[in-house]
Amino acid sequence: MAKPHSSNPSIAFYKKWLLMILALFSVSTLIVLVLRATSDSCNDRRYDKYHYISKDSLSPSQIPTASNAVSPLNFMKSKLVFLVSHELSLSGGPLLLMELAFLLRGVGAEVVWITHQKPMEPNEVIYNLEHKMLDRGVQVLSSKGQKAIDTALKADLVILNTAVAGKWLDAVLKDNVPRVLPKVLWWIHEMRGHYFKLEYVKHLPYVAGAMIDSHTTAEYWKNRTKERLGIKMPETYVVHLGNSKELMEVAENSVAKRVLREHVREFLGVRNEDLLFAIINSVSRGKGQDLFLRSFHESLQLIKEKKLQVPPMHAVIVGSDMSSQTKFETELRSFVVEKRIQDRVHFINKTLTVSPYLASIDVLVQNSQARGECFGRITIEAMAFQLPVLGTAAGGTMEIVLNETTGLLHPVGKEGVLPLARNIVKLATHVERRLTMGKKGYEKVKERFLEHHMSERIALVLKDMLKKGNDS
């Protein structure tokens, strides 16, 4: 029986083992990335109105290979880049901006970071993330004061991360806003309607460009801003994300994966042969953990009714916050107790390190509701670990997961509970199907969702932004 828990396995343990593994099994073979032109949902002709930055946009000299390992962002050397994040947390937006900061620092850019909204009381997550940036040479400033204004004015490029970051413009820059807008790239990740407020995005039509993670989100923003706010989107670039080199090193190291899998499963109190279905997202209603647990319970009932022979199944929720448990999470835990599946459901705290959990589970569930995920970085991370994905048929997930090939899709909302339950049963009862989908997902990651692919796509956008800034 699984033991109760609410904390992360020792990060020190992971670091110790991974350092040992990487020392013993240093990368001795360079993998040549073969990029094939494929036509799928990512290249749908409906999206010609946007700049879709794909591998087909690149000249042969730009395509990454083992012998052409120079960063496509090298032209950013000595450029001053000013990054504005509305918050600093373990959520997708801030972590993506941090990743870009490190890529830019890696090519010699001067990078300055500000966080617009910070709590008054000390916050351990913010402290750790800021020091991680400082250790990598990123300057961290207060979002207010003359120094922030002066840096924004002299920067070669200003990147606003998320719609809410737009509040910083009027709050701090004030009369200087018109001088900064021509060099602003607005990187938007949000899909929910409550972000469409004029106080956030009134300056959006006047910035140099917008960068959005999926075609679905770009289309949504174009229509919503016009219909609801009466404003026009600036030149918009669709840039799919990619997996970090660090994650890929673990995903492609069988020894590392085995060590992590054994340790996490031992921590959870589950056996190697047990089946683990996991959601790895911050716990919130929009991410659909409640509907996933209902589906998981339904799947157990279906297996019992049909007398199917499957290994013991478990649901893993990675993204809890035990320091301030929300009403929603309390509801989740109450449901688990009510249905008497405490030995089958495991809650894990938020973490910056997802690799241990991806190494330990068998299937990722991407159950984001309403309009779905803008992109869903965890989806391509799971595919790198050769995991099939059970995802909602909404948002960016449909641009990543190929139904019946790399995973299975189900409707959003209550209508998706039973279909997801059936899909859980399908993958639980068909080992070969699970493994084949995982391999197909990994192949797709290698084709288009690596860090170098993302760097190439972003580089093309940044070149346009610098040109526009110089021309203004």
Whole-number radius of gyration? Answer: 22 Å
Q: According to CATH, what is the topology of the largest domain?
A: Rossmann fold
Major sheet size, sense and barrel closure: 8 strands, parallel
Shape: globular
Helicity range:
40-55%
Proportion of residues in extended strands? 5-15%
Supply the CATH class of the largest domain: Alpha Beta
**Roughly how many Å apart are the termini?**
65 Å
In CATH terms, what is the architecture of the largest domain? 3-Layer(aba) Sandwich
Supply the number of structural domains: 2
Question: Quick recap of the structure?
Answer:
This protein has 472 residues and is α/β, with parallel strands linked by helices.
Spell out the blueprint of helices and strands.
Blueprint: H1 11-24, E1 51-52, E2 80-85, H2 92-106, E3 110-115, H3 124-135, E4 139-141, H4 146-154, E5 157-161, H5 167-173, H6 177-180, E6 184-188, H7 198-201, E7 209-212, H8 215-229, E8 236-238, H9 245-251, H10 254-268, E9 275-280, H11 289-305, E10 313-320, H12 327-338, E11 345-349, H13 355-360, E12 363-366, H14 377-384, E13 389-392, E14 407-410, H15 417-429, H16 431-448, H17 451-471
Parallel strand pairs: 1-8, 2-3, 2-5, 3-4, 5-6, 6-7, 7-8, 9-10, 9-12, 10-11, 12-13, 13-14
